[in-house]
Amino acid sequence: MWGMPVYFTHMPVYFNSHNVAVTAFPIVAGPSSPVQAVLVNRCRTPDTCNFVCDCWDCSDENQCGYQKDSEILGTPFTCDFEGGSCGWQDVSTSAYQWIPARASISTWGAEPPFDHTRGNDQGWYLITTKQRVKPSATARLRSPPHAGGGRHVRGPGLVSPVGASAGLNETHLPTLTVELTHGAGTVTLWRNPPSSVYPWRELVAYTGRIQGTFQITFSVTQAFSETVQLALDDVEFRNCGFSSSQPCGPDEVPCGQGGCVAGDRVCDGTQDCKDGADEDSCTAFHSCSFEAGWCGWADELKDFSWVRNASLQLAPHHARPTRDHSTNTQAGSFAFVNKGPLTLRGGKAWLVSPPLLANGTCRLVLYVHLFDSDTNSLNIYYRTAETAPRLVRSRSGDLGDFWFREKVDFPLAEAEEFQIIIEGVIGTGRKGNIAVDDLILSPGCVESNHSLPSPPEPTTPTPSPCSPDEFACDDKICIGAELACDFKPDCPDGADEQRCGATAFADGAGGWTDVSVGRLEWTVGGNGSRPDAAGSFLCLQQAPGQMLSLAKAATPVLGPSGLACTLEMDFTVGPQGLLLLAIADERLGTRREVWYELGAGSTARKQARVPLGARDRPFQLELLALDTLAGSPEALLAVRNVSFVNCDASTAQALPSALPCSFERDWCAWFTEQDDGFEWERRTSHGGDTDHTTGGGAFLSVDPLAPGPQGLSARLVSSPQVSNGTTCLSFWYRMQGPQIGTLNLKVKRLGADEQLLWTRRGGLRGRVAPGTLHPGPAAWPALPGEGFRVVFEALRDGFLGSMALDDIAVVPGACGAQKECSFEADDCGLVADERGNTWVRQDGAGGRGPPADHTLGTAAGHCMVVNTSSGALPAGQKASLLSQPFLPLRHTHCVTFWYHLSGSNPGSLRVHVKEGAAQRETLRIGPEPGEGWRHGRFEVEVQQDWQVLFVAESVGTSPSSSVALDDLLVKEGGCPMPGSCNFETGTCGWSQPHGDWYGWDWKEALTPTQSPSPKVDHTLGTNAGHYAYVDIAVLGEGRTEARLVSEPLPATSASCLHFYYCMNFLGQSCKWKPGGAVLCRTTDILLSQVFRARFRN
Question: If you write DSSP's letter for every residue of 897-960 in order, what string do you get?
Fold first, then answer.
């Protein structure tokens, strides 16, 4: 069978502007990847790497560019690169090469932050190096030889996801090709994808039928000025072997070496039997491969002409076939429409058969290449001496860069003379390509000795009064083409919205176009036929294609759509059916499934309501389906009554407007952005995972390891709002897990870029208690009447854990002083003294202060810094930083912060508490040995509004010095001694150290976890108590440590660290036990105590 796909799952393109030299690569250079022991050909069969398991354990199909299966993905003949290269070899001739690499959050924005197999930072893939070579260079990755022994191998369809980092301009992409080498020839199977916002995209390539041994090569060519990397993961060879021996059905023909082939696929130009028996005895068929000429077919002059040629003789063109179908080589010939001088209006070309005589059933099989244009079409007519051309088959749209099989039966009377017309129609816009090959007429189509009299001329349609970039309304009024299918009528008669996908199918497909290339296709049914007798519907029927793929129907280009845009439809799936809805966005380079339904033994009619959300034009909807048609003329799977609800982007009348929401009944005025595949979901309370409103209600949640598409962010967007002035948004949030990502709150004003208002990191580094919902206020100044939207954004820069939101509320005016501040979004309302040198918020690249902040531990993190060097702050001068007023306190609270004094003599940092008119100093910090972030704390007991005042004072003797502040926190309860903590109100000075390991969680005993954990803490002895915890289920291959580190502790000659610990293995009960260690250090260097949890195989 021609055209089985090889799936290289997801090859991403990532932009990186650095020039880094990397060691040469025989697929062992680069990071040290895990190598798994692989058994190869244990039965010593000579038939290896032929996509058939000849050994009892299928070991003859290991190290073939794939392994016998991927244990993680559960797919056969796949290489996921987790245990090695599967036999792929780098054959590059320069320093620009393919190397193994492992995903890492630290390379966010430069290299893949997660692989495709696991969807986290534990997985492996192959990636090109960042090498620059003049004037250009090509990195080549080659498979082992496949098949052999002279067999005809059904071509692997290479399927692999391909992607580009967000915002990457297509002109910056290197040239990527997938090539097939067979004998002395090499042909291109697949060429560069467009840029994409997805980190991983799917690549699909079809090899065609091959006799003998072949190899696959990934080639990436980049110019010296380019620094883009491409990565490859999950190479899957799908449907590449021949079917095994089995009983044949009544309409099937047995093959000589086992297997069966459908009777109408014998002598059709595609070898389905392993021994080729289905294509051996075909002398009664009339076949034209265009290798020796036109075989009596002729071009009948129209707007354009049909031309016969071979890829080897033609100038390269991205839309033209790189090989023919007959020989699967560049030297093979085919016929294509020569478009000549390009015009916006397009035109048509006719290829006409010789006169024919019907002698029984007359059937035409042909192979078509219809690629890179949504407006092109291929139509097949027949005409007689008495009748004008009658249309019997039509295909349109971009159906892919490969040859697909078509079949036409002509409804002719016995001995009726006729001619076949193959019409290629070039539409408006992008011209693409139309080509045909292997025209095969059945024995019932007999060539006639008589010339066919001139038939009546077909009726010439009235020319459109509109230009190519306009849409013609039914009443001949012209509107802009971009106004068609934008979910609001622009034509007076509404014609621009009548064929856009919203339909009951009573008058046809309603704008849905079948673009299937496999053995099933969509068609309109009804009038009492199954399924159900009532109404019309879109259903499946048998199709002539050779691909083993889903049936697909697509809408025209749609958009823009509004926030509340929703598709509603009725459907039946049947006992064994599969129905999916996907969204394809050419501008973003994305395509993903947003809804699906599997057959579960029922034939009942159901209704689907699928949110589409706000989308820019152009995007298209796709219906994909799979079902068995055995024993019935139609499948039980069908779609009815498709409608678009609240999709007009020009009006917000249907949108709820109030931001406050408890999510108990619905989403209120909040909507998910649908473009990235990583989304917020509304959930109900379960176990210890509860909401904030009632403890048993609903809330919003996002899980970075949820199955499905792998995006970089999940965005929750409000409906458009109108400001009444400065506004405070309050909400409750939860972030739990040893490696959860970032939660951002942003505001987008009309006509302006998004502004970050608030941000938190998960884990102990972010000091957020898992299982507990925390208040998160944020405010922004706005002019009355100003339009804006609010955005909650969960970044997928962590993979273990979850985030939750609940009880969003709005309060007029400012929010008041923030009790927690990391300075990542802003200065949290702290006010610097404007006299002389002052405090500034800056990142590690600011040139003065610490090279990395405390929150993130990177140069990208922010903190507050004051320059205390002699040239900036003379001796005795002070720089103050004052918080906003806090409300009076009923109980003692602890104020903690991290500070950094740099330079030989940076001066001092004093901390004051202002209560009413009174002010008292609570803490004085002077120079300390060594530089680094240190933990400060003090207790407050106040009866009135109060503020914290930080004062940096210079001694005026250091040429380069500074004082920095980060991670302010006000929490209830007293302050523990340095290094001491009962974990009831927080983690004290203990945190996750920066580095490539997991952190410990701070959890309430009541909160459920993946593995067993203590049901009560040691401090309180109840399930309301808290403790530090690490789930060893997350430790294993790749990361084997989770670390919990204290703040720097003062030097000591002898101190005792006392703690309680609980270790639970294999479900055994966990009891708290005392532990301890003696800390001895006689120098003046500060101590830092680390707890490590290790996993060992």
Answer: EEEEEESSS--EEEEEEEETTEEEEEEEE---SS-S-EEEEEEE--SS-EEEEEEEE--S--SS
Question: How many other C-beta atoms are found inside a 10 Å radius of the C-beta of residue 595?
Answer: 16
Whether residue 141 has pLDDT greater than 70: yes
Cis peptide bond N-terminal to 135, omega within 30: yes
Question: Across residues 959-984, what is the average pLDDT?
Answer: 90
Facing residues of 305 across strands? 338
Of the candidates 946, 936, 939, the residue with the CA atom closest to the CA atom of residue 966: 936
Look up residue 14 and give its two tokens. 């990532």
How many residues are recorded in the chain? 1097
Q: What is the dihedral of CA 329, 335, 337, 339, to 10 degrees?
A: 60
Residues 6+ apart with CB under 8 A from 609: 566, 567, 568
At 807-825, the pLDDT tens digits run: 998 887 778 888 889 999 8
Phi, psi of 791 (to 5 degrees): -130, 125
Tokens of 496: 């621009």
Give the Cα separation of 152 and 241 in Å (integer). 10
The answer to whether 79 and 86 are in contact (CB under 8 A) is yes
Burial category of 613 from C-beta neighbours within 10 Å (exposed 0-12, middle 13-18, buried 19 and up): buried
- Comparing C-alpha atoms, which of 538, 506, 536 is closest to residue 522? 538
Write down the number of H helices and E strands in the chain.
Answer: 1, 75
Q: How many CB atoms lie within 10 A of CB 929?
A: 9
Q: How many CA atoms lie within 13 A of 962 on its CB side?
A: 22
| CA 946 to mean position of chain CA atoms | 48
C-alpha to C-alpha distance for 72 and 79, rounded to whole angstroms: 11
The rounded distance, in Å, linking the Cα atoms of 511 and 500 is 5
Please name which of 1055, 1060, 1052 lies closest in space to residue 1083, comparing C-alpha atoms.
Answer: 1052
Could you tell me the pLDDT band of residue 675, with boundaries at 50, 70 and 90? Answer: low
Share of the chain above pLDDT 70, in %: 83
The pLDDT score that the predictor gives to residue 341 is 64
Distance in angstroms (rounded) separating the CA atoms of residues 82 and 73: 11
DSSP letter for 527, please.
T
**Stronger pLDDT, 957 or 669, i.e. the higher one:** 669
pLDDT at 706: 75
pLDDT of residue 198: 61
Largest distance between two CA atoms of the chain = 115
- The model's confidence at residue 267, banded by pLDDT at 50, 70 and 90, is very high
Cα distance between residue 491 and residue 497, in whole Å: 8
349: pLDDT strictly greater than 70: yes
Q: Which residue has the tokens 């991927």?
A: 70
- The two tokens of residue 862 are 């922010």
Query: What tokens does 9 get?
Result: 């799952």
The sign one gets for the Cα dihedral 832, 833, 839, 842 is: positive
Note the Cα 208 to chain centre separation in Å: 29
Q: Give the pairing type, strands 1041-1045 and 998-999.
A: parallel
**Whole-number CA gyration radius for the chain:** 34
Does 529 have pLDDT greater than 60? no
Q: What is the pTM of this model?
A: 0.83
Tally of CB atoms within 10 A around 516: 24
Higher pLDDT, 450 or 33: 450
Query: Where does the pLDDT of residue 332 fall: very low under 50, low under 70, confident under 90, or very high at 90 and above?
Result: very high
Residue bearing the bigger pLDDT, 965 or 1002: 965
3-state secondary structure of 279: helix
Q: Which residues make Cβ contacts (< 8 Å) with residue 934, sequence separation at least 6?
A: 898, 899, 900, 928, 1047, 1048, 1086
Q: Which residues pair with 759 in a beta bridge?
A: 744
Instruction: HSE, CB side, 13 Å, CA atoms: give it for residue 175.
Output: 10
The answer to whether the Cα torsion of 980, 982, 985, 991 is positive or negative is positive
Choice among 569-578, 929-938, 1045-1054 with the minimum mean pLDDT:
1045-1054
Distance CA 940, CA 943 (A): 10
